[in-house]
Amino acid sequence: MPLLNKLRSGSAVATKPPTGLTRLRVILTVFFALDGFIFAGWVVRIPAIKEQTGASASALGLALLGVSAGAVITMVFTGRLCRRYGSHPVTVVCAVLLSLSVALPPLTHSAAALAAVLVVFGVAYGGINVAFNSAAVDLVAALRRPIMPSFHAAFSLGGMVGAGLGGLIAGSLSPTTHLLGLTVIGLLVTAIAGPALLHLQPPNPPAGRTDPEETPRRLDSRARRLVLVFGFIALCTAFGEGALADWGALHLEQDLDAHPGMAAAGYSLFAGAMTLGRLSGTTLLERLGQTPIIVIGGATAAAGMLLGALAPTVWLALIGFAITGIGLANLFPVAVERAGALAGPNGVATASTLGYGGMLLGPPAIGFMADWFTLPIALTSVAVLAAIAALIGYGTRTPRNPRLDSLQ
To answer: Could you tell me which Gene3D superfamilies the record lists for this protein (predicted)?
Structure first.
């Protein structure tokens, strides 16, 4: 009982975690980083793929819809797969599929064919995101610390490296060779990290926490509403991340006459700023709490994206992208962690599905707005949604929920 009281009071937070939990944290971090690396490697080659397929802005937007459509459809079922087979095997299988499918876009020569292969890529991307986020939520509960931002920092760091590498080789290496290289790297990393992950059992839920399989059936109406609220905040965040991933480089290159390498560096800078924000996320959550993180982050992202979209020079736009990355950094991990704490894998799946619904709406919406108005004006929609997330975070502030606080 004294030990249990110490854990509940937080006095044992500094205790060194068991070796198995530390290994699990390292391996999950590797998969988060690999996911970001592969995804960023793809997005920085979108301008070249657009030219290769001859697609208009709206046609490209519809083709990019394939990623989000595949992701959202898969996320609906991945929570069930994680409960049945475990989040670790699902993570490994999806990592293999993600690595293989990233090599397909350069093989297409029409917007329709591009959309078809991007559905496959989206299936893998959506599946791995639900699976390793579910595993991370269990680990957060076992460690009793809000470390979720550190995993998403690894995703952003992988994105920064992937985008930076893509920018360096964009002018000298074809998209086919580049993305095939990502396939080889992804399969090698999975071959090393996958067996280690499969040999580690998911951590047991802490005392007093319900079984994740039973949690979704026992949620009260307030908890269900909270899951949906967190999911909508994730939607606003994913819309912004997807917009900068899919359209940021094109905006810099097309509207501000940036060199292809500089255009690719725009997403790298965004991902780098997001990485820094997420690396400090655990400390900020422990000191400030969830609501200030959402409110301040949403407001900061809104201001940064207005600058990034409307700035008259490349350098000002890059500064705006960096500010946006800092602002958006911790909104998605906070939303997914809280939804998972309330409803287990189903909560992660719900928040992720709504979140990537933002990506589902984002590419075609921005593409059509770019045709109707201009791409800079279309990108201001990111600022609008970030501001809405901040308002929702402020409007739904409530006394601290013991069920949520048990993870902090």
So the answer is: MFS general substrate transporter like domains
